[in-house]
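Class prep. Protein, please:
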Amino acid sequence: MKLSIVIPVYNTAAYLPKCLESVIYPQLEDYEIIIVNDGSTDDSGAVASDYVNRHPELIRLVTTANGGLGQARNVGTGNARGEYLLFLDSDDYLADNAVPEIMETLRQDYDIFIYDFVFVGENGAVLGTEPGCRVSGPVSLESYPGLIMEYPSGCNKICRRSLFTGSGLRFPGRVWYEDLRTMPKLYTLTDKIYSTGRPWYVYLQRPGSITNTASFRRNLEIIDAVDDLTDYYRGRGLYERYKNELEYIRFYNEFLTSCARICTADSKSPMLDTLKADFLSKCPDYKDNPYIKSLPAKHKLLTSLLLRGKYSEAGAIMKLNKLLKGGKA
């Protein structure tokens, strides 16, 4: 079997049908759909069972106690029979004709395929797009060190299953930033990576999703996530080679993005000083980083405000920016 599409499900009964319909192509062979019901308390299990009954040759359902997104993906990986894995969140969906195009693309001999995001609102309106990788075609960490800094999502990549089973790498459970803790590590295991440039993944922006919840205290988990990634590269003797990239990941994710997000909600939060202090203690020479030096003007302004503790001003800028974009996050 060529492909296993793994769909973790937790209380997304209203969105699951659209997700499943986007990956069901009865005329296609050599792929399977694995739904992992991660202890849902709504009708998700019933919706999933209905689809299994309608397509028993294509869809399998695995039910587990709630363990979080990462653990549900691991369960799906453990049950998969495909040579490749595609992770699809149950409130998102794939673009029209994506699965046939993916199956054709998988004829090429690569270990990781990267594709693009299309962001949509609940009314289906397109809010924007995001490239999975800014380099098209064959790519590797050695040829393009910036690969490690690309969006680390597990949802816009198809990975050879043996990368997980052969290395022991797994998604951590019950944490935020599980993708950052996992996906950039895979780039050290293979140089057979292909960036398709295809807009296959449709990412629904909704108020109740994990990325939009107001559990602001959990923003501090970004510290552990970046530490985990950095330690992994150190353990493989690759830290010095990719120091600039890893330092930028800490700057952008731990300091700039997390602080900006918190400022928008609570500019007096003590987490702001915690994040800033951690970043400065671990990256004292950040001003020499070539990626930070080349920041666009708006990011340089925001960085300056955060470094000077002007959190209210930074929050005001973020709110204004959101307003100018029509209220879209």
Observations:
- The two ends are 39 Å apart (CA to CA).
- The first helix runs from residue 16 to 21.
- DSSP finds twelve helices and twelve strands in the chain.
- The first strand starts at residue 3 and ends at 9.
